[in-house]
Every structure is written in C-alpha cells, then in structure tokens.
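Last lecture ended with a question: if I hand you only a sequence, what can you say about the shape of the protein? Today we answer it with a concrete record. The protein is Caspase family protein. Below, first the input exactly as provided, then the predicted structure, then a couple of comments.
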Amino acid sequence: MLKKLIIALIIIVTVLVSCSPYPGQTHAPTIYIVSVGLDYLNSEAPDLVGCPDDALEFGSCLSDIYRQRGFEAKTSYLVQYSAEADKAARDYPMADAILGAISGIPSTEDDLIIFYYSGHGDVDENGNAFLAAGSETGDYEELPMAAVFSALETKKAPAVAVIDACYSGAMAEEGGKSIWEAFASLFSRLDLRSVKVIAASGSDELSYMVPVFTESGEQESHGALTASILEILGWRHTSINTRTVLVSGCEKTVYGTVGYSNQSITADELFEELSGNWRYYEQTPTTNQIPVDIMLLN
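The predicted structure:
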C-alpha cells in the first residue's frame, strides 16, 4: 500500500512539473520588461520622433502576449516624450533611472528580464559605446552600454536586451569609431553568459527609422529593428484598437494591438527569423552568442 502511495505521489508531482510552460521550472516565471525611448525634442540633439512610440508599442506588445498566456508581466516605461517632458519625474529616462529600473527588479532564476532601448547611441572620446539617456540640464547623458549589460548580467534571471539605437553614429565626429564598432569591441571584453543582445546594425552601419502604415493607411515612424520584431510577434498597427499607459504621471495612447498567438520562440529563433526576413538593406541586425538559448515565448 505504501509503495502504491509513493508511486502515485511521484506521478502527481511529475504531472504538475510537466505543466510548467518553461522546462525545468516548477512555477510560471514573472516577466520584467524595461522599455526606454526618447525623442530628444526637449534638447538640441537630433530629433527621433518615433522612438517613444517604439518603446510604448514594444512594451505593450510583449505585455499583451505574456498576459494572454497567463504569465505575470511587469512593465516599466521610461520614456521622454515631447519638448514638455517632465525632467523631474521619477521615471524620466536619465542614466541613473534606467540602471535603477534594472537593479530594482526582484527577479529569481525562474524569471525573465527584457530590456528595450530606442534612441540615439554614440561613442565617447575613449571609444566606448553609450546610449544617449535623458539629461536634467544638457542635451543628453551618456549611459555606457557596458553598464547596462553588466547590470543585467548581475541579475539572477536570464535577460534579452533589444538595442534599437536609431541613427546611431549620426552624432559621432567624422572618422571616429562607429557605435557598432565600439559595440563589437565591448562584446569581446564582456563575458555575457546570461544576456542575449539583439542590436540594430552591423559595425560599419547606421540604423534608421522607417515608415510603417496602420491598417487604415496612416503612417507611423519606427526603428527598422523594432518594426521587424513587432511584425514577427504579431503586433497590428492600428488607430482603432488603442490603450493608455502611464508615462511620467501622464496617460499616453498606444496605437495597436496583438492578435492571439500560441507560437513558441527562443531568443535565437527570433534572431534567425528576423535575419531571414530582413528587408532594410542599409543595416544588418547583429547578436551575441551565449551558452544557453533563452526561451522568449512558450
């Protein structure tokens, strides 16, 4: 009788574990999304009008997909929007706020972190790549890419970082190292073992904003990398299905929706599909290799 009871318990435990959507885990993960976008309209830096919408739609798309599948998705938006952006807001995307949003994530090894950035990128005088974060006083504040990736690497959870540094290199001096050359050099120095990075361009390329049309024919502007990933994930650009998200204490409208999908995809598979269907020939997405592929959707 005792032997039969033990066998029954083993079967029950096996069934419960097998129901976990992520192999090897006994409970569903929490998904932490940090989505950053800046248009620089409150500075002298070149404008990137589509980048805040990139961040809002990317975060909303993933949040919707995960919630459809029964996962808890916690999304933080750090978005600088328009010339009247509130620089005193707690979620204004300055360097410390962005790094703080990452370091404050209470993740476990069963969870997943997704970091997204749309905005300028450039290279400092020492040849180090940085993201152009918001600034309280000047045009922008240098946020070293190394600091972002190191902050993600210190978390217990695996992480995927999507870097759509639009017009990256446009602010660099002629003849200087491009941001993506510095980016490649950074990868050779950092031992990223749990952070999968998908970046917008190759080492000798710029990255661009591209026109995207809604279902009713209205034109939007998005980073080429962002537009392509949203397409793969099933995001529909539309002015009919909208929702609002809170950005710096203000409600912002997100134009779009995601249809239901039961596809499973890893980070490597996402990059393979991205590369296989790429149609913006001025730039080529790049990625790094890590020991274990990360399950992005299951």
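Comments.
1. The chain has a mean pLDDT of 85.
2. The longest helix spans residues 51-68.
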